[in-house]
Amino acid sequence: MARISVATDNFNRSDGALGANWTADPNDEGASPVVVSNTCRNNANNQDGGSFWGADSFNDDQYSKVQQVQLGNSGTTYLGLLTRATTDDKMIHQKDSGNNVAKIWWWNGGSYTAIASASHTFADNKEWIAEAEGTTFRFIVDGSTIASGSNGSAPASGAPGVSTNQTTDIIDNWEGGYLGELPTTGINLRTLMGAGT
């Protein structure tokens, strides 16, 4: 399936809260992703924070994508992407417990259910993509799927977003959208590409 963009954020603005297009997860540990130096990172260390894009609606089959710029402390730190997130339910696709494990979690009502776990050596300046398709969830780095799993009880709808835990793990150039088929007829290519009519 193609990834079709619905929303983007390059974080190129004044330092502070992500802004009105984003919805902070009220269940996190008092921390949240913020803008610092035209990038996105957590506003505290060792506290989970997440936000999802609330300004648009998304198909159930969806993705969340960032350009990961810098990995900070390699100890017990977490950084990732959200899919199908709401204020009380979400899927977390993340770098887990340092820089050598990829995990996919379902968070619901204060408890975590493991969906997938795999060894992976994370590095700076990589493209991260989280996908939710039906009951299957994937974590993709630079075009390669590094973790994948399924759960029929996991959330079926919501919005894509980001999940942070440290001020030293930095992400940039977020994009969220849906998984689907591009139309092959009946649409002007320049319109599809956002290049005008």
Q: Please outline the major beta sheet.
A: 7 strands, antiparallel
Strands in their spatial order, largest beta sheet: 3-6-15-8-9-10-11
Helicity range: under 10%
Structural class, please? mainly beta
Query: Which CATH architecture?
Result: Sandwich
Would you kindly provide a written description of the structure presented here, covering whatever features stand out?
This protein has 197 residues and is an all-beta fold. It has one helix at 189-192; strands at 2-9, 16-17, 22-24, 33-36, 39-42, 49-53, 62-70, 79-85, 89-95, 101-108, 111-119, 126-133, 136-141, 144-150, 159-164, 170-180. It is globular and about 40 Å long. β13 and β14 form a beta hairpin. A seven-stranded antiparallel β-sheet has the order 3-6-15-8-9-10-11, with no helix packed on it. The chain has a single domain (2-192), classed as Sandwich (Jelly Rolls). It is built from one helix and 16 strands. Helices cover 2% and strands 53% of the residues.
In short:
With 197 residues, the protein is mostly beta strands. The chain has one helix spanning 189-192, and strands spanning 2-9, 16-17, 22-24, 33-36, 39-42, 49-53, 62-70, 79-85, 89-95, 101-108, 111-119, 126-133, 136-141, 144-150, 159-164, 170-180.
Annotation keywords:
single chain; seven-stranded antiparallel β-sheet; mainly beta; 197 residues; 2% helix; 16 strands
How is this fold's topology laid out?
Blueprint: E1 2-9, E2 16-17, E3 22-24, E4 33-36, E5 39-42, E6 49-53, E7 62-70, E8 79-85, E9 89-95, E10 101-108, E11 111-119, E12 126-133, E13 136-141, E14 144-150, E15 159-164, E16 170-180, H1 189-192
Antiparallel strand pairs: 1-16, 2-4, 3-6, 4-5, 6-15, 7-12, 7-16, 8-9, 8-15, 9-10, 10-11, 12-13, 13-14
